């Protein structure tokens, strides 16, 4: 069986490098995107099994990427799990309510334990 493809989207190269290294070490095929535009292009060509998506990116934000992905998926019937990567605290999401189009969030700095727990849980569903 082929390794699950996980798209890691963040405008900070250090974060992308760290997360992709953790994922690859655990046997996943990690794809990297450093902008919202790159994320949308990679999504279209690679059809990832899961997306880790930064919210605060210049030009095309994570929320804009999320909206565009869900519009595309509405046409195909596909539903890719998305975990938000954010510097926002848990209290922000509790007060705002987690976005209905995402399956979770990871607060930066991301720990490998929490990252892999969430990834494994979503890919097992």
Structural write-up:
The chain is an alpha/beta fold and 125 residues long. It has a single domain, classed as Rossmann fold. The protein is built from five helices and five strands, in the order βαβαβαβαβα. Helix 3 (62-76) links the parallel strand 3 (50-54) and strand 4. Helix 2 packs parallel to helix 3. The longest helix has 15 residues, at 62-76. The protein is globular. The two termini are 17 Å apart. The mean pLDDT is 88.
Mind describing the biggest β-sheet? 5 strands, parallel
Order of helices and strands: EHEHEHEHEH
Number of helices: 5
Structural class: alpha/beta
Secondary-structure arrangement, i.e. CATH architecture: 3-Layer(aba) Sandwich
Name the shape in a single word: globular
Tell me the strand percentage band. Answer: 15-25%
Number of domain modules: 1
The CATH superfamily is known as Response regulator
CATH topology tier name: Rossmann fold
Instruction: Tell me the radius of gyration.
Output: 13 Å
> What percent of residues adopt helix (DSSP H or I)?
40-55%
Distance between the termini: 17 Å
Overall number of strands = 5
Assign the CATH class. Answer: Alpha Beta
- What's the overall average pLDDT, rounded? 88
Q: pLDDT under 50 segments (min length 5)?
A: none
Q: Strand order within the widest sheet? A: 2-1-3-4-5
